[in-house]
Amino acid sequence: MRDDDTPPGPAPVVELRAIEKSFPGVLALRGARLDLRPGEVHALMGENGAGKSTLMKILTGVYQPDYGEILVDGKHVKVTGPRDAQALGISIIHQELHLMNHLTTAQNIFISREPRRGFGMLVDEAQMNADAAALFARMKVDIKPTDVVGTLTVARQQLVEIAKALSYDAKVLVMDEPTSALNDREVDGLFGVITDLKARGVGVVYITHKMDEVKRIADRVTVMRDGQTIETLDASNTPISKIISLMVGRELADATRAEGGPLGGEVLRVQGLNRGPQVRDVSFSLQKGEILGFAGLMGAGRTEVARAVFGADLIDSGEVFIHGQKRVISGPSDAVKYGLAYLSEDRKQFGLVTGMSVRDNITMSSWQRFTKVGALMRDGDLRRVAQDYVAKLKVKTPSVDQETRLLSGGNQQKVVIAKWLLRDCDILIFDEPTRGIDIGAKAEIYKLLQGLAEQGKAIIVISSELPEILRLSHRIIVMCEGRITGELDGPTATQESIMSLATRCQSTAA
Amino acid sequence: MSTTSTNTSAKSGFLSLAALQKAVAFAVLLALLAFFSIFAENFAAWNNMVNIMQATSINGVLAVACTFVIVSGGIDLAVGTMMTLTAVTAGLILTNLGLPLFYGIAGAMAAGAVMGGTSGAIIAKLKVPPFIATLGMMQIARGLALVFSEAKPIYFNDTPSFQLISAQSSITSLIPGLDIPNGVFVMFGVALIAAYVLNRTIFGRYIFALGSNEEAARLSGLKVDFWKITTYATSGMICGIAGLLIASRLNSAQPALGLGYELDAIAAVVIGGTSLAGGRGTILGTIIGAFIMSVLTNGLRVMGVLEEWKIVVTGIIIIVAVLVDLMLRKRM
Hints:
- The complex is a heterodimer of chains A (510) and B (332).
- Chain A has 510 residues and is an alpha/beta fold.
- Chain A has 17 helices and 24 strands.
- The N terminus of chain A is likely disordered.
- Chain B has a single domain, classed as Orthogonal Bundle (ABC transporter involved in vitamin B12 uptake, BtuC), CATH 1.10.3470.
- A two-stranded antiparallel sheet of chain B has the order 1-2.
- In chain B, α2 crosses α8 and α2 crosses α12.
- The N terminus of chain B is likely disordered.
- Chains A and B meet through α10, α11, β20 and α14 of A and α1, α8 and α9 of B.
């Protein structure tokens, strides 16, 4: 790490120093820092969860830091809310745009500070439209003040957000992955506007996962990892491999690698799967006893692939073969019938019925099997079988009548796993299997997964945590922007080799 | 996130919640009965008790129908007018076609099931929000009832046995003096079967799962659309029973009736502690809720309070019931 000397170059417009921030149970930032010069584009990079968004939320007043200082134009400031930030000339453009679709561009830009007339009772639409037109002219974009936002493309909506930021006389603009929904031509347009902003002395913090963009637009790049700022580098003189190794950083212990291997025999093959921009021409296969890792950065399309295979979302095209048979999966109930299970990353929303008991959650997918006279529930048997699985998977719960919302994350995950084991599913798709689970329980889940693979289950693990992927996977598929960008052998893959594939996006037209 | 160590206490807290809610509702019912017995002359007379039970029977059955839909996470605004349409259907079959009683009963229930199933299909397949779909169905059923009956009441004078369904009391021939009308027994019968279906059958289990978390249920492989349609159809069928009760009681199918009944039914469900968000509710609570509504109506009338004030009080009771529910849930 480098010492905190003021870097050479013009005085920074914004400086974040030694920022620390913790949330209940998590230390999100420790010793994070960033300095932004006027007229520069400063790329902010790091893995998912590295702390980029948290740091930007502190800069824009959404969060208050526990420790650390914020300087604007060399003066200490306290940013206690987004309004404060705006007053200081700091604006952010979120990945999810925050516009009101039914209003015009001018109404969106000047919302809550419309020019008034008629003793302040009426909105001076003419003045407002003229002001908006002036902003658009300054940006050299042909958007009309009277265009209804909902009718514009995402790229143009983004420009409206930029215009809104400019209307606050922004001297600092934070952009969070602004190109994720844009095609090539739109990216060119956006970069044109950014270059213009630079020329006017606006400092831009540019959060991105894409290496080619860093090379194209950034002057400097700051890499964050585990809540810390690792290093700030000159963008043009730094090789991509160096940035990647800084992002990945930590060394892995030798023992944390996948054990065993596939037992052979293909159980699942997916060919030419397409669904919107998030799943593009995805093909892969899975063997009995294999753990196949799906790696990639946020928004790479891994969850979307899983949901499409499982029938949770309708696909545009593609074929799925299960045990060599071509199957049409038009909904989750079909997928379950063919032995597929999907364990969602969001257990509370999509995995569990949190208001129902452990017993009902474990047995839910198998209720049909536990009826008499076609409809009556054999509750005694449900109880017994649920108790069986609670014992087998070591679920910590006072009884099977406990509501699942009262269990810890790890135990909730075990309940979901039990549900699918009871249903005799032999292809299990785990989406972020240890999200929200503490370290001790994580190891238990890993052991459980490995045990299932040894018993011949075929497993797909989607994870944003590289150590997790490396620890579990026999084989690794890496995705970026809806496409598979490469496949790696589990035991020989490295965090660097995965990350380099995960950032190798071909930004072709959507 | 909760940890395992807090589980035991939290659990006992929950167990008391469902029971507590029913206990509160029941206590309110007893308090109302005591209050009116003291302050309203003749309220406690047996005759009046019979009136209350009679009045409860129809709203009670409709409320049971609503409970199914509301526990599944939906809402049905059409129960009142579907009831009317099924009554008219029975009238057409028994009076206009002159078929035997059985066909009238089966026809009314089938008509309800078809109407309810249609609402369910519109909601499940066409993704129309339940509020809108059943608002439309409410008007459709109302219009059809008027069209089929030519906007005139249909009397059941040719089918004397029709009176047996609700108006007459069979038990009085066994125990003289105990002249509880049959309709009251029909309501309790419907409630018993409904409670059994909701708590013991796979269908009931699916209704709770749908109402608790539809997406999780879908991703667990449940045929969500099918069970939704079945839920609305079942609710419609129960409305058919309510249609028979009201027609029997009035000895006629009154096509102009029905509007407003859905609100009383939903109110009974809510007062009974069923969550409008779905996933939680009991038939027993609903029946207690229905009794609270009719005791209140009857008691105020006996006391000589203006009919209009009674409506105001009902509104207040509904809001208070939901507030109590929120408070109890926050406490656990």
